[in-house]
Amino acid sequence: MAKEVVLMPMLKEDTNTMRALQGLENNSSSIRLQAALAAGTTPDPGFIGKLIERCAIEPEFYVREMLTWALTRHAASMTVPVLLGEVRSECAQARSQALHTLSKIGDRQAWPAITPALLYDADDEVARSAWRAAVVLVPEGEEHELAVVLATQLGRGERETQLSLSRALIALGEVTLPTLGAATTDLDPRVRAHAIATERLWRDPDAGFEFAIEEAKRLVALGGAGQEGQ
Questions:
Q1: pLDDT tens profile 56-87
Q2: Neighbours of 184 (CB within 10 A)
Q3: Which residues of 19-48 are buried (b: 16+ CB within 10 A; e: fewer)?
């Protein structure tokens, strides 16, 4: 009788685990969302592999965010090694989501995995995730070197990509300013405009990126370099 009392909670736990794992495969995004929520509410090492696997193929943004949250609820010692493998995946979404999750976990032991190849990744979503992760994971004292690397991407992509890079550079702090200043005189007008817009956002975060970039483009067209007072 005592053995049955012990077994019942175990059986119930196993059933809940199986239900959550199966729910992650469901055709309904709301059921997948609930399954990810359950996996994060009651963490279990048995969830980690499936959560990471699902991150690589999940089409819904809000479900991916819940998958990431669920992974952050598990021990970093178990999730980080698997995520480090994912950042080398041939699948762009797998790389992007792994980097995003590493940025949320914030374990600086993952820093060596943030390679130039990821920071320069041809896929904008992967690169954006790598920039955000780099800013979170960069060791103290290496911010300037990271700013120099990130500045090579100024002028890249459309508005969302450029805004992500500006935010990453600004988040690194004052060490970014000399690098930005140099970029305002770059031969490429897209690089100059992006650097000027980022400087303006640094000085006035409330200005808005759209306004800053349009003003920067106007200055570039007029031959200005975006220095204070222009």
A1: 999 999 999 999 999 999 999 999 999 999 99
A2: 23
A3: ebbebbeeeeeeebbbbbbbbbeebeeebb
Helix (H) / strand (E) containing 119: helix 116-119
- pLDDT digit string (tens) for 147-180? 999 999 999 999 899 999 999 999 999 999 999 9
User: Are the C-beta atoms of 169 and 139 separated by less than 8 Å?
Assistant: no
Please measure the distance between the N-terminal and C-terminal CA atoms of the chain and give it in whole angstroms.
84
Tokens linked to 66: 């819940």
Closest alpha carbon to 78 in 54, 56, 107: 107
What does the block give as tokens for 11? 């059986």
Amino acid at 147: A
pTM of the model: 0.84
Q: CA-to-CA distance for 156 and 69, rounded, in angstroms? A: 29
Q: For 15-47, how does the pLDDT look when each residue is reduced to its tens digit (9 = 90+)?
A: 667 777 888 999 999 999 999 999 999 999 999
Q: Which amino acid is at 6?
A: V
CB 190 within 8 A of CB 162: no
In contact, 94 and 56? CB cutoff 8 Å: yes
